[in-house]
Structure to design on (571 residues):
């Protein structure tokens, strides 16, 4: 299977906001934030159907999310994961002495991981803290 | 039957909308509907009524199960871990009232804690830039009534501040902006074609992370000096067109968000954005404003500012306030493994901090004060649910333009639940006893 390299950014989406207020332990939060929005051209390079689970890997970590076609594109070469525990598995924690991690502009690799599940938000963080993923 | 509570303040984002109408049952105990709010604000009010809500403090057992406790037991544990720790971190504060923040700072002083708010992962770098070169700003009322040039740089209010555009920046008819949207020109700078960018007169689809260069190019374009053919992926003709559009307005404003504060160059991006604003004042009137996220993150900066002199990342471990982002900021403290107890209120670092920092929260004694179940509560030793500020208790909050607004209480919290301020008062009193100051 193909592996593509993207520039990852994270940020707010209205679905993320609504799901967050509705309960971060719920499935709606996973459906809102356990995703990566890809440009149509990047989907072609990746060679998979929309809504396929993918593994996103950076030098800081790795996470399984669902690949979706972006509704705010085109943005070839850029991947967008809504802010939340999934994005923060792979984001750059370096603050360069400002106190602020580098949430935007993280080089990542994306590959198809069809048989692997997207975890719920609370479960994902708990497992990561226990060293289970 | 039901009745309507009017002029309710929305405790979600920094826009702090003050025109909500909330339908409650006749006995005033249950919220049945919310009017005028955005989807997120409405969800916040309605979720407070959820039947599966946690209403009592609970300790996490080693096997991951939870054991219910009383508020007194929770206050005792919280006071003990803070009093015993050499360097506790007290983080959050942005989704609670200024009164609760002030009470929390008393505890921080007594326990010599590091106090930080969500600006750490939001507009902290803006605060550094403001300390560098100042901030020519205004209120949102002035934006509504005067601004005819609106720039959204690295922010997407259509998603993050859903009513900002309809209440203040794009659509409303103001005193000097009588035609609403027709009176205004909108420039959006964003690497994605966001739903905000789709409304723009000019969308500059910048190469991600090149904000400093583009801001610098604007300063050159204002003076009609030489520019290379492309800057940050934008042709120079388009930069000049946008620059002329800015200069030709009567009153303009730059709203900026995480696109510049969290990108490489960080505070220097904001330095340059403020310098752009200063330059524009040679030609017309221009202001700049950070799009603050949590409804009271601005208030936390204000309260920390007037009590300790610094707006975030305050270190009280030496008995007096010190401020040095990168050293005294939460992410760095956690990543270096320096803190030996973590107290979280009114925010969710478990979801919004890089996982390396969250792992440190899970390693040390920790308390999470939050009405919701969150990733932070999931890795904390103690979860203390409290009443929702702005829904079940009143309190002051600061809007993104530093205007203080009193949030209203709409319904009572579930029976026996405490507010943030009440719980913190219990902890403060117990810490005083433990420290021999009672």
């Amino acid at each position: 299977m193909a592996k593509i390299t993207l520039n990852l950014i994270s940020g707010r989406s209205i679905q993320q906001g609504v799901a967050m207020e509705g309960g971060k332990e719920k499935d709606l939060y996973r459906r809102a934030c356990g995703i990566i929005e890809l440009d149509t051209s990047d989907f072609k390079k990746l060679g998979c159907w929309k809504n396929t689970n993918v593994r996103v890997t950076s030098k800081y970590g790795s996470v399984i999310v669902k690949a979706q076609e972006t509704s705010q594109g085109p943005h070839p070469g850029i991947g967008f994961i809504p802010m939340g525990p999934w994005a923060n598995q792979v984001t750059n924690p370096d603050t360069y002495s400002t106190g602020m991690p580098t949430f935007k502009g993280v080089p990542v690799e994306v590959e198809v991981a069809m048989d692997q599940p997207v975890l719920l938000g609370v479960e994902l963080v708990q497992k990561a803290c226990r060293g289970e993923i | 039957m039901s009745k309507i509570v009017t002029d309710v303040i929305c405790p979600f984002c920094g826009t702090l909308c003050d025109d909500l109408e909330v339908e409650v049952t006749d006995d005033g105990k249950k919220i049945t509907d919310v009017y005028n709010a955005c989807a997120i604000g409405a969800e916040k009010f309605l979720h407070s009524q959820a039947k599966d809500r946690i209403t009592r403090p609970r300790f996490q057992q080693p096997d991951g199960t939870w054991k219910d406790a009383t508020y007194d037991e929770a206050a005792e544990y919280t006071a003990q871990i803070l009093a015993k720790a050499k360097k506790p971190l007290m983080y959050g504060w942005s989704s609670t009232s200024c009164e609760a923040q002030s009470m929390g700072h008393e505890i921080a002083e007594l326990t010599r804690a590091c106090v930080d708010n969500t600006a750490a992962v939001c507009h902290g770098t803006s605060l550094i830039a403001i300390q560098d070169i100042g901030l020519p700003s205004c209120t949102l009322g002035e934006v509504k009534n005067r601004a005819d040039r609106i720039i959204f740089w690295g922010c997407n209010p259509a998603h993050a501040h859903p009513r900002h555009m309809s209440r203040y920046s794009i659509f409303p008819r103001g005193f000097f902006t009588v035609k609403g949207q027709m009176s205004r020109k909108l420039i959006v700078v964003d690497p994605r074609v966001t739903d905000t960018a789709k409304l723009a007169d000019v969308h500059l689809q910048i190469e991600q992370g090149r904000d400093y260069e583009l801001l610098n190019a604007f300063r050159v374009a204002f003076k009609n000096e030489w520019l290379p053919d492309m800057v940050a992926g934008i042709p120079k003709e388009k930069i000049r067109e946008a620059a002329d559009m800015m200069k030709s307005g009567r009153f303009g404003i730059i709203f900026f968000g995480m696109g510049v504060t969290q990108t490489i160059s960080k505070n220097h991006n904001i330095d340059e954005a403020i310098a752009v604003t200063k330059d524009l004042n040679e030609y017309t009137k221009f202001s700049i404003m950070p799009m603050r996220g949590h409804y009271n993150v601005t208030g936390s900066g204000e309260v920390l500012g007037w009590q300790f002199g610094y707006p975030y990342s305050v270190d009280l471990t030496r008995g007096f306030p010190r401020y040095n982002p990168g050293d005294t900021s939460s992410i760095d403290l956690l990543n270096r493994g320096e803190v030996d107890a973590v107290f979280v209120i009114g925010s969710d670092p478990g979801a919004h901090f890089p996982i390396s920092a969250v792992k440190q929260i899970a390693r040390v004694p920790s308390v999470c004060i939050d009405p919701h179940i969150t990733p932070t509560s999931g890795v904390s030793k103690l979860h203390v649910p409290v009443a929702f500020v702005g829904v079940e208790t009143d309190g002051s909050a600061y809007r993104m333009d530093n205007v203080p607004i009193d949030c209203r209480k709409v319904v009572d919290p579930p029976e026996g639940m405490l507010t943030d301020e009440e719980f913190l008062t219990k902890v403060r009193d117990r810490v005083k006893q433990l420290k021999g100051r009672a």
About this structure: Chain B touches chain A through 68 residues (CB under 8 Å). The radius of gyration of chain B is 23 Å. Chain B has a mean pLDDT of 97. Residues 58-121+295-434 of chain B form a domain with the Rossmann fold fold (CATH 3.40.50.740).
